[in-house]
Specification:
Length: about 1500
């Protein structure tokens, strides 16, 4: 028994002594073997990968109880580049030696209970190497809790401060503890990662719910053995995965796989004390960024003498691009960026002074130095501004590039402020705008990195806005507001609110233009301060007295905040009562577009908008494109996680059909972010005003010539305000406004003066012409790094992994030109119109765009990863001469034939596994991910098909299913030229299998111009245009005329001279030219115009011709065309006929028929394919269709104008008929009505087609509104109706009409200048002004204010143009109201709003739709005002009882005689009734809100009698 108890005590004591918490004994030495591997590829056995491997031995010895020394030995650094299984790692001796020089130096670290603390290392050990040490020491980082098997905690490690999840399992046999640790490195509280270049791409968290483009996870597995000193880590295996795809990772990805294996070799006792060399504290275990931030991942070069290399590269780049852009020099430009980021400010100044006097080198230096992107380049630009050695143009471009690519921090923001106070910045309006906008962009990016963002950053812009207001400088105020909008600083809200009425107690009075700028300044705050912006914009939107455009802009910003359902419902309720149709139409169309949105960021909003549309559609769904509109189109693909959206905003005002503002905006959705790629806007209110004035004058003159119209329009510029811009334009890139400019009348006048025929030697055009006569050579290039985005983070090995994208563009143009003018101008430019001019030029425009995507390791000593390279080249070369004489209308163009193959547009794309190291730059490897594409060309199969008629040759080749080659050429043998398309592609996978892998292979596409061999070489291609035959083709034209007389004499009678001759000939020495000649003949008559076009091939034995005979019969509204071609125009034939019809009582229609006798086989095949396609398209477009036998070889279509905004269509093809009714049109169409039967079209008549007439008439019971809507209806008797009135707050005029019992009309005009009454008696018209009789014999007269002119012209005519009333005509029976163009869309009454709207035909006072014409009359009847009022009618809601125990109330009022009167005449009226159970209590009844009744209510239609005339008792008040 004692023995058993003793044994039990021993066991218990032993168990209590087991300790798994990792620790190190400072008196012992620990030796480990370490292997770290990183590979980047597609994780497919047939695709190439690259990677690195580090192998070494580790020795850890104690310095103190908690401080230890790490010594690394036996280091080898290996690289991999090839296909897994076929290639292996290869040791790089030079790279190993370089890394070992630092990595083998001893490093001290703190270590307590499994936690690695601060590191100390010699100062010469770089951050890059020390990070590798951090990665190695990561195997010691583990938290062991023996009281829990599963637990989680936040830990500090190389990836940052991240969440770790642990699982522990004890091996009872080996007594070892197995620890599994999972680190969530994607959601770290403090993450060792850097994002660069993505400040303007908003994160799209909603997109991440549908998938992700990156997945990152780290897993460690430890074996821990218990010892008396604590847990001893004997083995570690760690694995880190990063899956990246530009699309959804589920559809294929680029995979980073990092592994670490650590094995314990042995533990020995330490011998002696360790005396470490001097060291510095280098921080904790978290990865520290260093030189990798400056290293472009696309190349690796030794930079021993950067200044010499920069000079060398600039010389080479300039030389290579001096004639045309050399797209092979992209690597040199990237290296230049890299080197410039290494030099000092003094070095930059040295380079500038070196190239100051050389325009080509200077321009290249300025363009590339902007990409230094830190404080050095800002100081460099400050020096340039202060010394004045930049032109305004150079300074504008430099500021724009530098500021928008600058790394924004507190230092650079402070330096950028200096540009706001330098005089040179204000030397040009464009430069000053660019400085302000660019500074705002810097502040925006800076505020994205700090929270809260200091007020001092945006204060200069706020001060400028305040100062501009005090100086009454509207231009500067708008610039500052736009810059504030770019900045998007939270503290700018109060300043912005000062310029917005109704939202701040300290609001100031500014123009509508400034208010618009202030609203737009809220656009970035819509994301940063959602609730505040919603409050402000909702307030503005609900202020009905504000400018329509300000309210619409506010609505736009409001929906940018993604309002919730409750707020959207509130907006919808408000719109139900909206009287401004511009605002209503814009808001409704914006909500309608968002309701259909498919993008993730609009998912919740689209649901809310769908609810709003159901509320708003009955009232606003009819509004046409005559009103303001917001058009939204988007697309998103969940599989690829990419999408796009485009918006077009059309802002209109009440005075014009044409938009006052147009904005177009595009967004891109990719890699979980939203990028506002580009936005353009133009405001045309100033030029609209000019056109409006011109139009009103031209409308008065029925026949105005084109020249008179132009001169009148130009003269109107003089009357415009000096500071009012004719056109304002802006452009935004990536959400930041980069351009803003106003075009005022001074600019227009200077241009007109410069190009005027009277301009002399003082004109800049004169100088330009003189220079061209002497010969000019001009060259320009522009490199531009469109974007550089980088995501760099730590890995467990200590090497950084990077995902980066570079988009580089180089555009250039070379122009050589020379002209000869005979006789040369001596006095003015007008002399050029009578001179013979020869203009010769050659040159090219080339644009090379390279897109690089890199995923892999990027340090200053080694690069390894996957790299995709896309190269696109646009090349437009030219060489030609032009001879012309404007007076004789002869033009001749000569150009040489194409001698060599030239690529016009090409695209090359491939993906590579890349490996580079700094010690062996010549040994860099770029292995195509699918292997060398040349291997696929061993046994290609080829298919050739040449069609002689079309001149097209196709060549295709492929091997099995992975390599496709095709070439299609369209040849023009006569001109020895061919246009070809070449395509080559290699694929290892199908799209449906792995979407990302499908795009991995080599791709090449090119459009080329190539020479075509022919028997006779061509000297030149000559194109001539004239109004008569030229000497080279005179005999040909004569023969053509003879042929034409034989073919078409029946229709023409005598053959006229041609009105146009155009030839395109291939000229070869003294041989007869070959090519084609086009001749046009025109015969005009009063009833019929005839036109003949003849295209003939010129050459020996050439008999191909194309004959077109067309005529327009105006008498019968018919047109027809006969098309014949082939040998002598006899081979093929097509007839086309069209006829318009508009008979009384019917709608306008167009009937078109196409029939043919014989056509080529390829046209038959195309027609057959189209015929097979039509049924499916018809079904998708919801057309009805019937299969029936229709005429063969014929297609016919009938289009009928159903309404002004819709058409009916019926189309017949052989064996099928498709038809559809009321197809909506994007515009309104008004049938042309003209009383000028004998006159040709004039400018004024064309203007009137575009403008609403603005004329309303009543004749008896026949009404015609401002919108040309006609209806007939009996009028209520003895009651005033509002015929037309100014419905703005000014109420400048009101026209009332009353029909008496004798059916004569009484009219009353009320204006601020006075009132006028007109009545008709047997004795004639009675006229009163302000209750005083006016004799007709005294007319014309004016009122005392001079605003009213009354005259007699077969009736009374009242003119008050300053009050918006052009004229009011009255003769007792007919009334005609004509308003000024400025009143359009602002009127209301029976005449309507003069807005061109034809769907909203009957609009009541509160903008509700009347059910019919009589309901419209009822709604505009004025209530009786007293006993003096003769009106005996009133509006009443009727009650009706049904046998079904229900009571019903009319939903709209019905005319009834007032109490004490009985009906004399009635008319039937269809009325809707809302019915409810009899026992339902109704305390009050408001028909407009009858929709609030519960679902038990019912709706019925009944016809009732409406009273229109009453008889009242003699003792009634009316008779008193």
């Amino acid at each position: 028994m004692h023995t058993f108890l003793l044994s039990l005590c021993v066991v218990v004591a032993a168990c209590q002594s087991i300790n798994y918490v990792p620790d190190l004994n400072p008196k012992k030495a620990y030796e480990y073997k370490y292997v770290g591997v990183m590979t980047i590829g597609r994780d497919r056995p047939d695709l190439a990968e690259s990677g690195v491997r580090i192998q070494c031995s580790l020795k850890i010895t104690g310095v103190s109880d908690q401080t230890f020394l790490l010594q690394i030995n036996d280091l080898t650094f290996d690289e991999f580049n090839g296909i897994p299984g076929k290639s292996s790692f290869v040791t790089s001796p030079k790279l190993t030696q370089r890394v070992a020089a630092e990595l083998t130096q001893p490093v001290m670290f703190e270590y307590v209970r499994g936690q690695v603390g601060d590191l100390q290392a010699p100062v010469e050990v770089s951050h890059s190497v020390l990070n590798i040490v951090r990665g190695i020491l990561g195997f010691l980082q583990v938290t062991v809790k023996t009281t829990q098997n599963i637990y989680e905690l936040e830990e500090l490690g190389i990836h940052g401060i991240c969440q770790s999840n642990y699982a522990i399992e004890e091996d009872l046999n080996s007594k070892e503890l197995h620890v599994t640790r999972i680190v969530d490195i994607k959601n770290c509280r403090e993450k060792a990662a850097v994002y660069k270049g993505m400040a303007l791409a908003l994160e799209n968290n909603d997109c991440k719910e549908r998938g992700d483009n990156t997945v990152e996870i780290v897993q460690y597995k430890y074996n821990v053995r218990p010892t008396e000193d604590g847990g001893l880590i004997t083995k570690v295996y760690a694995e880190e995965n990063q899956l990246f795809s530009p699309f959804n990772v589920k559809g294929g990805n680029s995979k980073l796989l990092a592994t670490q294996e650590v094995f314990l070799i042995g533990v020995t006792d330490s011998v002696g004390n360790v005396t470490p060399s001097p060291m510095q504290n280098r921080g904790n275990q978290i990865y520290k960024f260093g030189t990798e931030l400056n290293q472009i991942p696309l190349q690796l070069n030794k930079n021993t003498d950067p200044m010499a290399k920069i000079s060398e590269l600039i010389e080479h780049i300039v030389a290579a691009n001096i004639k045309q852009v050399d797209n092979s020099r992209t690597a040199d430009i990237l290296q230049l960026y890299q080197l410039l980021r290494l030099v000092t400010l003094d070095n930059m100044e040295t380079l500038w002074n070196k190239y100051l006097g050389n325009s080509e080198h200077r321009r290249w230096l300025l363009d590339v130095i902007a990409e230094v992107s830190d404080a050095r380049v800002i100081r460099f630009l400050i020096n340039r501004f202060q010394r004045g050695d930049l032109s305004v143009n150079e300074a504008t471009q430099a500021v724009l590039l530098t500021f928008n690519h600058l790394e924004a921090n507190s230092e650079t923001v402070e330096m950028c402020k200096e540009f706001l106070i330098m005089p040179f910045s204000r030397s040009s309006d464009l430069l000053w705008s660019t400085v302000l906008l660019s500074y705002g962009s810097v502040v925006y990016r800076y505020c994205g990195t700090v929270d809260p963002c200091p007020l001092i950053a945006v204060q200069p812009l706020l001060d400028l806005a305040t100062d501009s207001l005090s100086r009454n400088d509207e231009a500067d105020l708008i610039r500052s507001l736009k810059a504030i909008g770019n900045a998007g600083h939270l503290s700018s809200v109060k300043t912005i609110m000062k310029f917005l009425p109704g939202v701040s107690p300290t609001v100031v009075s500014v123009s509508t233009r400034a208010q618009r700028a202030a609203v737009q300044a809220l656009r970035h705050l819509a994301v940063r301060d959602v609730h505040r912006v919603q409050e402000i914009t909702l307030n503005l939107f609900m202020q009905r007295n504000l400018s329509s455009e300000v309210r619409m802009q506010a609505c736009l910003i409001l929906f940018d905040t993604k309002p919730p359902l409750a707020l959207v419902s509130m907006i919808a309720s408000f719109l139900l009562e909206e009287s401004n149709l511009q605002v209503a139409s814009f808001s409704y169309s914006l909500i309608h577009g968002l309701a259909r949105s498919q993008t993730p960021d609009n998912h919740i909003l689209s649901i809310a908008c769908n609810v709003a549309i159901k509320i708003l559609k009955p009232k606003l769904g009819h509004l046409s494109y005559h009103y303001s509109k917001a058009l939204h189109f988007d697309w998103f693909n969940d599989d690829f996680l990419i999408g796009k959206s485009s918006d077009i905003y059309i802002f209109k005002n009440v005075n014009s059909y044409f938009p006052s503002t147009l904005i177009s905006k595009w967004k891109a959705y990719f890699i979980g972010r939203i990028l506002e790629t580009i936005e353009f806007g133009v405001h045309t209110a100033g030029i609209q005003e000019m056109f409006r004035k011109t139009t009103s004058i031209l409308t008065e003159k029925q026949n105005t010539s084109l020249m008179e119209a132009v001169l009148k329009m130009l003269s109107e510029w003089q009357s415009l305000p000096e500071k009012q811009p004719l056109i304002s334009a802006f452009a935004r890139v990536f959400g930041q406004e980069v351009f803003h400019a106003d075009l005022n009348k001074d600019v227009i006048q200077s241009v007109m003066q410069a190009i005027s025929p009277k301009a002399g030697k003082e004109s800049p055009v004169w100088n330009m012409i003189e220079n061209i006569q002497n010969g000019v050579a001009w060259h320009w290039t522009k490199p531009y790094l469109i974007f550089e985005t980088r995501y760099i983070r730590a890995t467990m090995t200590g090497l950084p992994i990077e995902i980066s994208k570079y988009y580089l563009s180089v555009t250039g143009s070379t122009v050589n030109a020379k002209s000869t003018i005979s006789p040369p101008p001596t006095d003015n430019l007008g002399q050029l119109l009578n001179a013979d001019i020869l203009f010769e030029t050659d040159g090219n425009v080339r644009s090379a765009k390279d897109l690089f995507v890199f995923h892999g390791i990027n340090t200053d000593v080694v690069q390894s990863g996957a790299e995709s390279i896309s190269k696109c080249l646009l090349n437009i070369p030219w060489k030609f001469s032009i001879k012309m004489n404007v007076k004789s209308m002869k033009f001749q163009l000569d150009t040489p034939p194409w001698k060599t193959r030239t690529e016009i547009l090409s695209l090359n794309y491939n993906v590579y596994a890349v490996s580079r190291n700094i010690e062996d730059p010549a040994e860099a490897k770029m292995t195509p991910m699918m292997g060398d594409h040349m291997e696929f060309e061993e046994n290609p199969q080829t298919l050739k098909n040449t069609t002689g008629e079309s001149g097209q040759e196709q060549t295709k080749s492929w091997s099995e299913a992975d390599h496709l080659q095709t070439k299609i050429c369209a040849k023009a043998p006569s001109y020895a030229t061919a246009m070809c398309m070449e395509m080559e592609a290699e694929r290892a996978h199908y799209l449906s299998e792995y979407p990302l892998y499908y795009v991995l292979g080599y791709t090449r596409c090119a459009f080329t111009l190539e020479p075509v061999e022919r028997n006779k070489p061509i000297d030149k291609i000559q194109i001539e245009i004239s109004n008569g035959p030229n000497k080279d083709t005179e005999s040909v034209s004569q023969s053509m005329k003879i042929f034409l007389s034989q073919q078409m004499s029946k229709s023409l009678g005598s053959i006229p001279d041609p009105v146009l001759i155009m030839t395109a000939l291939a000229v070869s020495g003294n041989d007869k030219p070959e090519g084609y000649e086009t001749t046009v003949y025109l015969t005009q008559a009063a009833e019929k115009d005839e036109i003949q076009l003849l295209v003939s091939q010129i050459g020996e034995e050439a008999n191909w011709r194309l004959c077109v005979d067309a005529d327009v019969d105006r008498t019968n509204n018919k047109s027809k065309m006969q098309l014949q071609w082939g040998a002598e125009c006899q081979t093929y034939k097509i007839n086309v006929e069209a006829e318009t019809s508009h008979l009384p009582g019917s709608n306008p229609s167009v009937n078109a028929t196409v029939n043919w006798e014989e056509v080529p086989e390829y046209m038959q095949e195309i027609g057959k394919r189209v015929g097979e396609y039509i049924p499916g398209v018809a079904l998708l477009q919801r057309f009805s269709q019937t299969h029936e036998k229709n005429p063969e070889k014929q297609i016919s279509a009938l289009v009928t104008l159903a309404t002004s905004e819709s058409i009916d269509m019926r189309m017949e093809i052989p064996e099928l008929t498709v038809y559809q009714k009321e197809i909506p049109l994007p515009f309104q169409f008004f049938p042309f009505e003209s009383n000028q039967q004998d006159e040709g079209p004039s400018i004024s008549s064309s203007v009137r087609l575009l403008e609403i007439q603005g004329i309303c008439t009543i004749s008896g019971n026949h009404f015609r509104t401002f919108n040309n809507i006609r209806f007939t209806e009996a009028m209520p008797k003895d009651c005033y109706l509002v015929l037309a009135k100014d419905c703005t707050t000014e109420e400048k005029f009101q026209v009332l009409v009353k029909e008496q019992l004798n059916r004569r009309k009484e009219v009353s005009l009320k204006t601020p200048a006075g009132s006028i009454n007109m009545n008709y008696f047997r004795s004639g018209i009675q006229l009163k002004m302000n209750d005083s009789n006016i004799l007709l014999s005294t007319l014309p007269i004016r009122d005392t204010s001079g605003q009213l002119l009354i005259k007699f012209e077969n009736g009374i005519v009242i003119q008050a143009p300053t009050l918006g009333l052009n004229s009011l005509y009255y003769n007792g029976h007919t009334i005609k109201v004509e308003i000024e163009s400025g009143m359009k869309r602002t009127t209301c009454g029976l005449c309507g709003q003069a807005d061109g709207e034809t769907k909203a035909v009957f609009r009541k006072p509160k903008s509700q739709m009347a059910r019919n014409a009589f309901s419209l009359l009822t709604s505009w009847m004025l209530d009786r005002t007293g006993c003096s009022d003769t009106c005996s009618l009133e509006r009443q809601h009727l009650e009706m009882k049904l046998e079904t125990k229900s009571k019903c109330y009319s939903v709209e009022p019905v005319l009834r005689c007032r109490e004490g009167c009985s009906p004399r005449a009635t008319v039937p009226q269809s009325v809707g009734f809302r019915c409810i159970p009899t026992d339902t209590a109704v305390t009050s009844f408001d028909p407009p809100s009858s929709r609030s009744y519960d679902t038990n209510s019912a709706y019925v239609e009944e016809t009732v009698d409406a009273h229109i005339s009453c008889f009242c008792k003699a003792n009634d008040c009316l008779a008193a």
